[in-house]
Design brief:
The structure holds three protein chains of three kinds. Chain A is 68% helix and 0% strand. Chain A is mainly alpha-helical. In chain A, 57% of the residues are buried. The N and C termini of chain B lie close together (7 Å). In chain C, 31% of the residues lie in helices and 24% in strands. Chain C contains 15 helices and 21 strands. Chain C is globular. Classes of the chains: A mainly alpha, B mainly alpha, C alpha+beta. Chains in contact: A-B, A-C, B-C. Chains B and C meet through helix 2, helix 3, helix 5, helix 7 and helix 8 of B and helix 1, helix 6 and helix 12 of C.
Chain lengths: 297, 313, 512
C-alpha cells in the first residue's frame, strides 16, 4: 500500500488566516482541471450515498437465484446482477455509503491519534523522544500486516477495519503535525502567550492547532484515498465487510471467481473504487498546490 | 556520521523489541490456537493437549515471551510451531524472491514515476501534464489484486507472452526477467504515482529557485539547466519518497506474492498468521521492519552525498 | 544522474523487448518418446507442513507422503473396498486381536528392510505421547503391538474396534523407515516404500520427488513429480491453461465451467465423501427447542444451494453420505423437507423472529456461498440472521469453544466410514474438540459406541443407519450437500487415480 510521504527537514506550510486568502485558494483550486474533476466526482459520490434509497433500483441484498449473473444492460438491471441475482447498480450505490463512511471514520480516528501525538511530541520536548519512537514503530510495520493482526485480535468487521486503517495513518499524520508545531512554537506570539501565563492546552488548541489545518486537510483528503483502497485490499483477504454488505472491495473479491464468465462483477466495482480513489488523490494534490506547493504532505 | 549510524542501529534494536512485543501479544490475544491448527479439524482433545504441551503453549504469556526474547538476543529466531523448521532458514529461502520483486518494482516505479513527473513539471498545466498526472494517479488508484489478475489474463493467458506465476529462473536470465515483469508492474505502479507526484512538485520548486534563474540568465543551455541544475536538486525529496515507499512496497508484496505464486516473505507472513505459527510471524515481521529501517538509513546517508549541506550529528 | 536515468531506461526497454521477442517457452513435461514423462507438476494451494506421516495432518502434506510412503492397507479407488497394500493378509483370532501378515522382500528407499519391526516402530512412535503426533488418535484403541516373526505383526486392541482397517489405511498410518527416522528428520527427508523417492524440498515453493526405479510393481512413468505451491486458484488454473502445470485438484465451483472449456485439459469428477452441514449450537439451551430446529430445517432450501454449485454438489438429507459406509439409500429423504410456509408459521407462532442469531462461517468461498444463500432463506422465513465470517484459524477455535448460534461445518470423511464421521463430529466425548456442533445425545452416543466396537460389518451398518436417522429426526443438523470431488489434468496424460475422498495418486499416470 502506498504511504503518504514525508520528508525530513523541509519548510512547513502555514495555514492562511484571513477569509479572502481561503477564497483565493478555492479559486486557484477550481482553476486546476484535475482537481476540479476530482471535486465533481466526490460531490457526485456523496450525493449518491445520501440519495441511495432513491436512486437504487433494488434492495441491495435481495437475492434472486433465478436471475443470477445477468450481464450489463439487462432489462431491469442496467449493471447486471451478481452470482446471487442481486442488482449490481444498487449494490454499488449502497456501497458508496460504506466506502465513504469507513474512509471518514478511519481518517478521523487516524487524525485524532496522529494530531494528539504530533501536538504532544512537538510541544513537549520530554515526550518527543518516546512518541517519535512509537511513531517509528508503527511506521516500520507493513500497514496491511498491522491491519491483519488487529483484525485477527478484534475480529472481522467494518468497524475493526476502520480502526486498523486509522492506526495505520497515525504515524504519517503525527510526523506532519509535529513538524508544523515545531516551526510554529518558536514564533514570537506563542512565546508571548506563554509569558502571560496561557495554559499549554489553550495554546496548543487555540493557537497552534489552527496553524496546522492546511497540511491536515491535504493529508486527510489523500488519506481518504488510501483508506478506501485499503478497505478493498482487506476485503480481498476476506477481512473486510461481513456478507451480504455491499462493500466494493468484497464485491471485487467475490466477483473475481467469475472473472471469465461475468467480468462485469469485478470491473464495475473496480471502476467505482478507482474513480473514488482517483478523485480524492487529485483533489488532495490540487489542494496542496493551491495552498502551498511546497507543503510537506 | 559513524556515530549517527550507530545511534540509528541502537534505535533499531529498541524498535525491534517493541515490534516483537506487539506481534507476540497480538498473536497471543487473537483467537485460534497453534496446537489445534497443527492437529487439524480432526484432532482429538488428547492430541491437541499433547501438542500444546510439547510447544509449551500452556505457559503464562510472559514466560513464553521471555523465552522468545532470550533466544532472540542470542540471535536465534526460533523454530516453526508447524514443522520445527528453523525460522531463519525459512526466511532465508524466501527473502531473495521478495527482494527481487521489491527491487524490480522499485525500478518500474522509478522509471515511470520520474518520467511522468518530469513531463508534468516541464509542461506544467498543459494537457500533457494532466495526462501524465492522470496516468500516474490511475496507477495508484487500481487495487493491486485486481490489476494482477487482469494482467495475468491479458499477457499470460491471452497473449501468452509472459509466464503466469512463480520465480523459478535466476533474475539475470531472460526467463527470470520475464517472470518479474507482471508482478513488478502490479506492485510498482503505486509507488510510481508517489514518485511522480514528488518529482513534479520538487521540480517546480527548484525551477523557481534562484540558482536556476541565475543559470538561465547566464545563458546556460536549457537542456543543461534541466538535467544538471534542476534534476539533481529536485531528486533529494524524491529520494525520500523512494525510501519510504520501499517500506510500503515490502508490505505490498503480501498481496502480489499471493496473486503471482511467488514464494516470498510476504506470503510466509500470511500463511504463518493463518496457521498461528507465532515464531514464523515474529521472524518475518522483524525482518521486514529491519529492512525498512535499513533502507531509510541508507537513504539518509545517500543524502549527504547528494546534498553536502545536510549533516547528521 | 542523466547516465543513471539512461541506464534505467535501457534496462526497462530490454525487459519489454525480451518479453516480446522470445516466444513461448516449451511446456514442461516433454518426454523422449519412451513413455517416460520427464517432469509432471501439480499446483498445490499450500505448501506441505512436513513430509513425515507421523508429524503432519494436512492434505498438502498427505498429497506428498501418499506418493512416498505406503500403508498396510489401502482403499481401492473404484470399489472403495479396503485391500492389503504392504500387508499380505490379516485375520482376527479373537475380537481384540489383529494378526497381520506382511509382504516380503520390500525395501525402504534407504535400503532398510520392510518388516514387522518397522511396523511396530512406526505405530509405537505414532501413539507415543512424547511424539505429540497430530493423529495419535488413530492408534487410540491399540493396547499393544507385538512382533511375532519377521513378517507377522500382532496388534491387540483395548476393545473390539470396528473401523480399524479404515484407520490403518489412513495416510497418517503409513509405514516409515525406522533407520531413517532414527538417523534423520523424516519431516524434511522422507523415506518410505512408495513408488516415488524424495529428491528435494524448497519450503514454500516446491517439493520434488523422483521415480523409484526399484519399485516392486515397476517404476512410475513420471520421472520427476513436482508439487508446486500456487496459493491463488485462479493463477493455478491459468498455469494449467498455459502448460506451466499439468495437474490441479479441488476445482472451485465458480470456475468449473472455465476449466471445462479449456481445450488442453480433462476434468475428472467423482461422487465424493466430503460433506457440508448446517448446525445449531447444541450446547446452548435455546436450541434444545425441537420446534426451533425444525423451523431452521424447513426454512433452508437445500436444492437452491445445490443448484448454485455448478454440478459439484450431491443433494441428500442423509448425514452419512452416499459414498460413506453406513449409508442406506432411504436415508436420503429422511430429513425435514424444505417448506417455507411451515417455517414461516413456526417462526410466527413461537416468536423465533424476535432474536438475532449469529451465523458463524469461515471466510472460504464455498462456505460464504452457503452463508449468503441460507441467510437470505432464513430471513425469508422471518428469522433475523447476521453473518459472522472469520478466517479459518479463528473459526475453528471459535466453533470449538461453542461461541456461536448457528454455523456451517464440514468433514472430509477420509476413511469413508460412518463411525469415523459420527464419533469425532457428534459424540459427546469430543465436545470441546472436534464436535464443534456441541451435539450431545446419550442414545446417539450409545449407537456410535456400539458401531465402533463391533467388528460385524452388517451389524455396524444397521447401527450407523439408526444413528443417522436419530439425528435427522431431531433436525440435529441440516446436510447442505455432499461433494463431488474434482481434479483437472493436462489432456496429453491419463491414468489419474481420483478417490471419492478427494485424494489422488499419480503413480500410474502415463502419456496418452
Amino acid at each position: 500500500m502506498p504511504e503518504v510521504v514525508q520528508a525530513t527537514n523541509s519548510p512547513i506550510a502555514v495555514t492562511p488566516k484571513k477569509d479572502n486568502e481561503w477564497l483565493l485558494i478555492i479559486k486557484r483550486l477550481l482553476r486546476n482541471k484535475l482537481a476540479f474533476l476530482g471535486l465533481i466526482i466526490i460531490i457526485l459520490q456523496i450525493a449518491m450515498a445520501l440519495l441511495a434509497p432513491i436512486i437504487a433500483t433494488h434492495d441491495p441484498v435481495k437475492q434472486d437465484l433465478s436471475a443470477s449473473e445477468l450481464p450489463v444492460f439487462s432489462e431491469d438491471h442496467w449493471l447486471g446482477t451478481d452470482n446471487y441475482g442481486r442488482d449490481v447498480w444498487s449494490r454499488i450505490v449502497y456501497g458508496s455509503q460504506i466506502s465513504l463512511l469507513v474512509g471518514i471514520v478511519a481518517v478521523v480516528l487516524g487524525l485524532l491519534g496522529g494530531v494528539t501525538l504530533g501536538l504532544l511530541g512537538g510541544y513537549y520536548k520530554k515526550l518527543d523522544g518516546i512518541i517519535m519512537r512509537f511513531v517509528d514503530l508503527l511506521f516500520s510495520f507493513p500497514g496491511i500486516l498491522l491491519a491483519m493482526l488487529i483484525i485477527a485480535v478484534l475480529g472481522t468487521s467494518l468497524v475493526n477495519v476502520a480502526i486498523a486503517i486509522s492506526i495505520w495513518s497515525i504515524p504519517s499524520c503525527a510526523r506532519i503535525v509535529r513538524g508544523s508545531v515545531l516551526s510554529i512554537k518558536e514564533k514570537e506570539y506563542i512565546m508571548a502567550m506563554k509569558s502571560v501565563g496561557a495554559s499549554d492546552l489553550r495554546i496548543m488548541i487555540k493557537h497552534i492547532l489552527p496553524n496546522c489545518f492546511a497540511p491536515i486537510i491535504v493529508f486527510a483528503t489523500m488519506r481518504m484515498a488510501t483508506a478506501i483502497l485499503s478497505t478493498a485490499a482487506l476485503s480481498y483477504l476476506g477481512l473486510g465487510a461481513q456478507p451480504p454488505t455491499p462493500e466494493w472491495g468484497s464485491m471485487i473479491s467475490q466477483g473475481q471467481a467469475f472473472m471469465w464468465s461475468s467480468p462485469h462483477l469485478t470491473i464495475v466495482p473496480g471502476i467505482a473504487i478507482m474513480l473514488t480513489v482517483f478523485a480524492f488523490n487529485v483533489l488532495g494534490d490540487g489542494l496542496r498546490d493551491a495552498i502551498d506547493p511546497n507543503m510537506n504532505v | 556520521m559513524v556515530g549517527f549510524i550507530f545511534r540509528r542501529f541502537f534505535q533499531l534494536v529498541i524498535l525491534l523489541f517493541g515490534i516483537s512485543f506487539l506481534v507476540f501479544s497480538s498473536m497471543y490475544l487473537a483467537p485460534g490456537d497453534p496446537a489445534s491448527m497443527i492437529g487439524g479439524p480432526t484432532a482429538s482433545k488428547e492430541d491437541v493437549e499433547a501438542i500444546r504441551d510439547n510447544l509449551g503453549l500452556d505457559d503464562p504469556f510472559l514466560t513464553q515471551y521471555g523465552r522468545y526474547v532470550v533466544d532472540l538476543v542470542q540471535g536465534d529466531l526460533g523454530y516453526s510451531y508447524q514443522n520445527q523448521q528453523s525460522v531463519a532458514e525459512a526466511i532465508g529461502v524466501r527473502l531473495p524472491n521478495t527482494l527481487k520483486l521489491a527491487i524490480a518494482s522499485m525500478i518500474v516505479a522509478i522509471v515511470i514515476g520520474i518520467l511522468t513527473g518530469l513531463i508534468s513539471a516541464l509542461k506544467q498545466n498543459s494537457w500533457l501534464d494532466v495526462g501524465s498526472t492522470t496516468f500516474a494517479l490511475a496507477g495508484i488508484s487500481i487495487p493491486n489484486f485486481w490489476m494482477g489478475a487482469v494482467l495475468i489474463l491479458i499477457f499470460s493467458v491471452n497473449l501468452q507472452l509472459l509466464p503466469v506465476g512463480g520465480l523459478s529462473s535466476p533474475w539475470y536470465t531472460i526467463e527470470g526477467i520475464k517472470e518479474l515483469i507482471l508482478p513488478a508492474i502490479t506492485l510498482g505502479t503505486g509507488a510510481a504515482a508517489m514518485i511522480a507526484r514528488m518529482t513534479r512538485s520538487s521540480m517546480l520548486e527548484v525551477v523557481r529557485a534562484d540558482y536556476v534563474r541565475t543559470a538561465r540568465a547566464k545563458g546556460v543551455k536549457e537542456r543543461e539547466v534541466i538535467w544538471i541544475h534542476t534534476l539533481k536538486n529536485a531528486m533529494i525529496p524524491v529520494l525520500t519518497v523512494i525510501g519510504v515507499n520501499f517500506g510500503s512496497l515490502l508490505g505490498g508484496t503480501i498481496i502480489t506474492e499471493k496473486v503471482f505464486a511467488i514464494n516470498g516473505v510476504g506470503r510466509l507472513m500470511i500463511d504463518a498468521i493463518a496457521a498461528r505459527d507465532f515464531p514464523m510471524v515474529q521472524g518475518s515481521v522483524l525482518l521486514v521492519a529491519t529492512l525498512f529501517v535499513v533502507v531509510n538509513l541508507v537513504v539518509d546517508v545517500v543524502y549527504t552525498y547528494i546534498d553536502p549541506r545536510i549533516k547528521y550529528q | 544522474m542523466r547516465k543513471k536515468l539512461l541506464a534505467i531506461l535501457a534496462v526497462f526497454t530490454l525487459m519489454i523487448v525480451s518479453a516480446c521477442s522470445s516466444g513461448n517457452e516449451p511446456a514442461s513435461g516433454e518426454g523422449e518418446g519412451n513413455g517416460k514423462i520427464d517432469t509432471f507438476t501439480y499446483a498445490s494451494l499450500s505448501d506441505a507442513v512436513g513430509l513425515s506421516p507421523i508429524m503432519t495432518n494436512d492434505s498438502a502434506s498427505a498429497n506428498v507422503t501418499d506418493h512416498v510412503y505406503e500403508k498396510l492397507f489401502d482403499r481401492n479407488t473404484e470399489t472403495m473396498e479396503i485391500e492389503p497394500k504392504l500387508a499380505e493378509s490379516y485375520e482376527n483370532p479373537d475380537e481384540n486381536t489383529w494378526l497381520i501378515k506382511l509382504k516380503e522382500g520390500i525395501k525402504f528407499h534407504d535400503g532398510t528392510d520392510f518388516n514387522a519391526e518397522a511396523v511396530k516402530y512406526t505405530f509405537d512412535k505414532l501413539r507415543d505421547p512424547e511424539t505429540a503426533a497430530p493423529r495419535a488418535s488413530l492408534m487410540e484403541p491399540v493396547e499393544s503391538i507385538n512382533v511375532i516373526d519377521d513378517y507377522t505383526v500382532e496388534i491387540k486392541t483395548k476393545y473390539p474396534y470396528g473401523p480399524f482397517l479404515a484407520a490403518l489405511s489412513h495416510s497418517n498410518a503409513a509405514i516409515v523407515s525406522p533407520t531413517a527416522d532414527k538417523e534423520g528428520d523424516l519431516n524434511k527427508e522422507p523415506v518410505g516404500t512408495g513408488p516415488f523417492k524424495f529428491a528435494k524440498w524448497v519450503p514454500g515453493d516446491q517439493v520434488v520427488l523422483e521415480a523409484n526405479e526399484d519399485y516392486r510393481d515397476g517404476a512410475p512413468a513420471i520421472q520427476q513429480l513436482i508439487f508446486k505451491v500456487v496459493p491463488e486458484i485462479s493463477t493455478a488454473i491459468s498455469m494449467l491453461q498455459t502448460g506451466e502445470v499439468q495437474f490441479i485438484d479441488n476445482l472451485p465451483m465458480e470456475q468449473i465451467e472455465r476449466i471445462e472449456s479449456l481445450k488442453n485439459v480433462t476434468v475428472e469428477k467423482v461422487d465424493g465423501t466430503p460433506e457440508y452441514y448446517f448446525s445449531v449450537n447444541h450446547g446452548k439451551e435455546e436450541f434444545q427447542d425441537a420446534k426451533l430446529r425444525e423451523a431452521f430445517a424447513s426454512a433452508i432450501d437445500r436444492d437452491a444451494v445445490v443448484s448454485k454449485m455448478n454440478g459439484l454438489g450431491i443433494r441428500s438429507d442423509s448425514v452419512i453420505g452416499p459414498k460413506v459406509f453406513g449409508y442406506v439409500e432411504s436415508a436420503a429423504e429422511a430429513g425435514t423437507p424444505y417448506d417455507l410456509e411451515k417455517a414461516k408459521s413456526l417462526v410466527e407462532e413461537n416468536g423465533f423472529g424476535e432474536k438475532t442469531y449469529k451465523l458463524l462461517t469461515p471466510n472460504r468461498s464455498n462456505f460464504l456461498l452457503m452463508a449468503e444463500i441460507v441467510q437470505a432463506q432464513l430471513s425469508e422465513a422471518g428469522f433475523n440472521i447476521e453473518i459472522e465470517s472469520m478466517e479459518w484459524a479463528s473459526f475453528l477455535d471459535t466453533a470449538r469453544q461453542g461461541n456461536f448460534d448457528l454455523t456451517f461445518l464440514s468433514w472430509s470423511n477420509l476413511t469413508a466410514d460412518g463411525s469415523e464421521l459420527f464419533y469425532p463430529n457428534f459424540h459427546s466425548d469430543n465436545v470441546g474438540a472436534s464436535n464443534r456442533a456441541q451435539y450431545s445425545n446419550e442414545a446417539f452416543d450409545q449407537l456410535v459406541d456400539e458401531s465402533r466396537t463391533t467388528t460385524d460389518q452388517d451389524k455396524r451398518l444397521e447401527l450407523l443407519d439408526q444413528a443417522n436417522r436419530l439425528m435427522l429426526d431431531e433436525d440435529a443438523v441440516v446436510i447442505m450437500y455432499h461433494s463431488i470431488v474434482t481434479a483437472a489434468m493436462d489432456q496429453s496424460y491419463e491414468g489419474l487415480l481420483l478417490e471419492a475422498t478427494g485424494k489422488w495418486n499419480l503413480s500410474e499416470v502415463t502419456r496418452k
